[in-house]
Write a structure and sequence with these properties.
Bound molecules: beta-D-fructofuranose
Structural class: alpha/beta
CATH topology of the largest domain: ABC transporter involved in vitamin B12 uptake, BtuC
Distance between the termini: 73 Å
Largest sheet: 6 strands, parallel
Shape: globular
Strand order of the largest sheet: 6-5-7-8-9-15
CATH class of the largest domain: Mainly Alpha
Helix content: 55-70%
Radius of gyration: 27 Å
Amino acid sequence: MRSRLSHLFLYSRLRPYWGLILVFLLACAFSPVRPGATLPVFLDRDNIIDIVRQVSVRGIIAVGMTFVIISGGIDLSVGSVLALSTVITALALRDGWGSFAAIALALLTGAAAGLFNGAATAKGKIQPFVVTLAMMSIARGLAMAFSHNYTIPIRPGDSNFLTLEEKIFGVIPLPAVFFLFTVAVFQVLLVYTAFGRNLYAIGGNETAARLAGVRVDRYKILTYILCGMLAAAAGVIQAAQMHQGDPKDGMAFELDAIAAVVVGGGNLMGGVGNVTGTLAGSLLIGIIINVLGLRNVEPSVQKIVIGSLLVLAVAVQTGTFGLWGRKIMKQWRGAAAGLFIGLGIAGLMALTSGCSPAESGKYVIGFSQCNNNEPWRKAMNDAAVAEARHYPDIELRFQDAEQKNDLQVNQVRLLVRQGIDLLIISPNEAAPLTPIVEEVYNSGTPVIVLDRAVNTEAYTCFIGADNRIIGKQAGEYAAKILKGEGLIVEIQGLPGSPPAIDRSEGFKEAIAAFPGLKIIHNPVANWLRSEAIDQMKIALQAQPKIDLVYGHNDPMALGAYLAAKQVGREKEMKFIGIDALWNEGIQAVIDGELDATFWYPTCGKEAIQYAHKILQGETVPKQITLPTELITKENAVEWQQKLKPAEG
Ligand code: FRU
């Protein structure tokens, strides 16, 4: 009896956690150690808490996904439901509903989405993949419609809602507490109730369960409702952490949730899995991301490592490695998974030049970039690196947030854990990045904010050009070339980023003096050329006459140009952009694709210069405004020469 019990305990109960334990140990081994410290940075109390906080939102979704997967289904709509929930919460708060009602409304919305998914699956007999794919699109569409595709800020003064992101006893963040609480409640539900037991029966063999008298449809519907509600609850927490409702949030979260369930021992065929396993899966993934981040491993390598490890873990769990492997796994499934994961990490880390603590005597500057994948940002990074070569006492560490607010917050935390002496940040959007900027600055680390402002005074200095003035000059130039008369398409940048707001307001202010100028279409393309192409195609279909396109940056103006060219209408209209990279916007002016662009200095060089001053103890101005310049055919060649060496 005793040995059977211990067998059960060790192999069955602990199986999903062996992987986690091994990854934990490996993370300790591979984490950098701060100079003078004995313990690895990974083991810092705050770092461990960060990991739990960082996996909370996706983890809560994964708990719901566990139920659905055990029942033999899948829910692809959770990421979109999260986005819808953030939007509903923010709108309700904005309209004065109060926190309680706003949260209740968001949860009800999630439940409604789940009811749709469950009913169509159970009663309508449509495959869950198809139903929830449809809901993924519907919920995203609703989030965009309700918000008009803008982010909706939640202001600290508006209600007590933002207490949801606070820490209890000043240490443990509430999102982490909610996550662990959800795990506990749902594990009990799964293990100790008829509902839970029947779920396994349904997922194991639905027909048998039906014949045994289990009310399959009812349980399935309930499962999807719970999953929808948990996705909505995760959305409420996300809204509190990001200080906004965001129709773009939650992209691909469904895949993260499925990964956590599967790594935690769940099986997509149904009938297998449990919530604590999913907790282990979430933490395991969180730890890998954390330790790769602490070592500043290249984002490209991080993605390859994470993807490979997931496949490995699941391959081991499901016995893909043949008879021999299956034999080991029968008893040692979790351990083998962990071992493979460990070996994978070890190998890949050995291949990557992970960074260790700074060489002594060097200042470490963390550089949090909101999206490397935009030409202007690449130029900013290059300018910073070039300038940093003049300062042998500076070491630069970059992080790329891929235009994701939550990722950028997490990356700033990672940089802080590495023990940076100064933070340079170009925030993706203002509201979600404000709290972390305040936190870092208030903890005594100087912070330089670049190009996109935050909603606080708690930073050391801001460097950037005046976007309102640029917008105004763009409006005046438009009025000049259109001779005060014409129809305008304005293609807008990411709505929650201040340059988009300022460039729009400045432009509108200038053209207000000309009653003959009208903005007839103003889609959002989030700074991206690809989105601008799509938006411009729609504008071209809808508008028989367009006289001018004003893009909030050059990539979007050029995207619009391409779309117009595809239908042979590019000569009919003028194009104005902003940024004026020597090899992009200015070249486009020389080539006749753009009529004008405005020089928007990348501030990479200045950021390093001011960072060095601050690190030397010098006082610097709080607001550093860089110059701008209208560039047209007349001065394009001259400016190309001027900017090439500086920012090229
Ligand atoms: C790059 C970018 C630039 C733009 C700036 C505004 O991310 O979109 O093209 O001028 O950001 O912050």
